[in-house]
Amino acid sequence: MPQTLGNLFILAAPSGAGKSSLIKALLEKHPATGEHDNAMQVSVSHTTRAARPGEVDGMHYHFVDRAEFESLIEQGAFFEHAEVFGNYYGTSKIIIEQTLRQGIDVFLDIDWQGARQVKAQIPDTATIFVAPPSKDELKRRLTERGQDSVEVIEQRMIKAVSEISHYHEFDFVVVNDNFAAALAELDAIVTTRRLRKEKQIIRHQQLFDNLLGS
Ligand SMILES: Nc1ncnc2c1ncn2[C@@H]1O[C@H](COP(=O)(O)OP(=O)(O)OP(=O)(O)O)[C@@H](O)[C@H]1O
Ligand SMILES: Nc1nc2c(ncn2[C@@H]2O[C@H](COP(=O)(O)O)[C@@H](O)[C@H]2O)c(=O)[nH]1
Q1: Does residue 144 have its Cβ closer than 6 Å to ligand 1?
Q2: Where along this sequence does the record place binding of ATP (predicted)?
Q3: Is there a domain that residue 184 lies in?
Q4: What residues form DSSP beta bridges with 90?
Q5: Predicted ipTM?
Q6: Least CB-packed of 58, 121, 130, 141 within 10 Å?
Q7: 114 in contact with ligand 1, CB cutoff 6 A
Q8: Ligand 1 centroid to 16 CA: how many Å?
Q9: In a domain, 138, yes or no
Q10: Which CA distances in Å does 132 have to 93, 142, 151, 153, 157?
Q11: Is 18 annotated as belonging to a binding site?
Q12: Is the CB of 113 under 6 A from ligand 2?
């Protein structure tokens, strides 16, 4: 069993800025080695929104109805939850706690409201805001992605301004213009966080005991 808790990361961004693509690429760059200490996982949220074509229950989201979501809120099952685009979204408390206790790093792809709630509970969380290079490019990405109607894209563009207005609440800001450059910045943030002195000392306690001859 690893002796350290996993690191908790939050990636927030206006819809379409590219946070899912960045997390996916980051996980591919850091494949699990079988050692929990090197593992990363993306948390699967609960939501009341309808599944999009191609989305799989339990993989992209846990899709539930409003009554079930509200019952989960009452049971205190969520680490954080918020209403976004008229739907509920939330992060399961037990899954996050269990995963971090196994020494596995966890990424939350959540909005600014959720980020605020998590940071208040775990100040050590690294919060990262991913910004698009321009409004025009954001709209182009949403359109090219081909998942949403013109009306939904307009709604997401309005919401984007509200999401972006919270950028200063985050520990790090990554502008996703050139994808490879943004991924390298994200990787640097994650790697630096993993190499913090306290974590390294606990991880390598045996080595330091040997080096110091105790
Ligand atoms: N740097 C980039 N340059 C050009 N296109 C990009 C870049 N990053 C991501 N994209 C594309 O933009 C679209 C939106 O990306 P993605 O789905 O990752 O966004 P998201 O922030 O996770 O959105 P949502 O919150 O709605 O799920 C995708 O088609 C993706 O391939
Ligand atoms: N506060 C939370 N926000 C969440 C969670 N899961 C996703 N989200 C955010 O919602 C919007 C819309 O997502 P979409 O998949 O419908 O495009 C986006 O900003 C996500 O980051 C959550 O558990 N809590």
Answers
A1: yes
A2: 13-20
A3: yes
A4: 46, 81
A5: 0.96
A6: 58
A7: no
A8: 5
A9: yes
A10: 30, 11, 20, 15, 12
A11: yes
A12: yes
Cβ 117 under 6 angstroms from ligand 2? no
Range of the domain at 138: 8-43+105-212
Q: Whose C-alpha lies nearest to ligand 2, atom 14?
A: 15
Say which CATH number the domain at 24 has. Answer: 3.40.50.300
The tally of domains found in the chain comes to 1
Ligand 1, atom 15: closest residue by C-alpha = 18
Both tokens assigned to 77 = 């099952």
Distance (Å, whole) CA 49 – CA 33: 34
Query: How deeply is 96 buried, as exposed, middle or buried, from its count of CB atoms within 10 A (0-12, 13-18, 19+)?
Result: buried
Q: Which two tokens stand for residue 25?
A: 């690429």
pLDDT in tens, the chain (214 residues): 445 789 999 999 999 999 999 999 999 998 876 655 568 999 999 999 999 889 999 999 999 999 999 999 999 999 999 998 889 999 999 999 999 999 899 999 999 999 999 999 999 999 999 999 999 999 999 999 988 899 989 999 999 999 999 999 999 999 999 999 999 999 999 999 988 878 788 888 888 889 999 6
* Ligand 1 atom nearest to 156, measured from its CA: 26
Residue 88 lies in a domain: no
Can you give the pTM of this predicted structure?
Answer: 0.92
Query: Any known ligand binding at 20?
Result: yes
In this predicted structure, what is the pLDDT of residue 1? 43
**Residue 162 token pair:** 């509200």
